[in-house]
Amino acid sequence: DNLKEMIAKHEGYKPRVYKCTNGYDTIGYGFAIKDLYMDEEIANLILDKKIRGLLARIEGDEWDWWFFDKPLPVQDVLVNMIFQIGFSGVKKFKKTIQYIKDDNFLLASEEMLDSKWAKSDSPNRAKELSDIIKSQ
Questions:
Q1: DSSP assignment of 26-40, as one string?
Q2: Closest by alpha carbon to 118, among 107, 133, 129?
Q3: What's residue 18's pLDDT?
């Protein structure tokens, strides 16, 4: 613990990527990105934290009044999309969102596929998520 505290004190904590004195992209307590190996356990911890953060953001957003009343698979699809393309990206799916608000999951699923996201960026992911919405 003493060694850890000493290194942490000397390195300093930086939550965002920065250039170290040797010019490498670095994060945290002097972790050079080029030297990092992320095992699946750590990746899962980060993913869990990111998902909790996205859900907390939805709770404080204009979506709060309708999002949590939708079936869990619908919530999961929307969070999956937010994870990939960001909140602002998903909010551009205005028709899809309106159809989901109206519980018209068939039209919402079709509207999801009428997008650059579905046609060129992530067609397999979009089709899978669209099918989940359609099944509700």
A1: EEETTEEGGG----H
A2: 129
A3: 96
Taking every pair of C-alpha atoms in the chain, what is the biggest distance, in angstroms? 59
Hey, what's the torsion of the CAs at 64, 69, 104, 121, to 10 degrees? 60
Is the pTM higher than 0.85? The answer reads yes
Residue 1 has pLDDT above 90, yes or no: no
**Taking the CB of residue 43, how many other CB atoms lie within 10 A of it?**
10
Q: Which residues are CB-neighbours of 109 under 8 A, at least 6 positions away?
A: 130, 131, 133, 134
**96 vs 64, residue with greater confidence:** 96
The rounded Cα 118 to chain-centroid distance in angstroms is 17
